[in-house]
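Example record used in the benchmark description.
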Amino acid sequence: MESRIIEIDPNCVNEFEKLKKKYKIESIFLKLNDNFNLLYVEKTLSKISQDDFLESIPVDQPRLIIYKKYSNNKIIFIRWIPEIVQDTIEYSYSNASTAILELLIGINEYMEVKDLIQLSNL
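Model output (structure tokens):
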């Protein structure tokens, strides 16, 4: 499969820098556009419970999520790819995660997740 070039919206890095500097942001949801060539910030969340965080994750659509765990001050990069996602879409998100991780300095942990149960102990 041919590798696609993924463009990263600058707001992805800007929001990450805010999260690192202890602004009110606790998580950043990144999504690819319909052409799978642009990664952008879908939404940011702050001051929410873990249950609300888990409920905000789409059960049938992939996302790249940056989550700040304030209890130990770790920043976790989560590649959420539900089991039902087509291989071509999973491949696009894999390329996007590689591209964005090159720009994000300060990620402490990386998780590949296919089942929300894996996130229940964040």
